[in-house]
Fold this sequence. Notes:
Elements: H1 3-14, H2 20-42, H3 47-52
Amino acid sequence: MTSETILEMLQLVRDGALRPEDAMDRLANKLRVQEHLSGLKAKLLDPVGVRFYPYAGRDNERTPMVWNHEPNGGFTEPGVR
């Protein structure tokens, strides 16, 4: 979280546009989102996704082709990620 975000919240409180407890809730939510996104980045396997996160990546689009009816469609051994 940037200092600009915190300053923006403080200014809203100062101007009476936001209650202090609401500002704290917003800041806490922003931190939770950032923690969640950093956890997602740690799980990325695609080199393009790692390098250009969060703007580009192929992990969501890549699906192994099913070759047969074995576990994992015969594409990989069981237990391989």
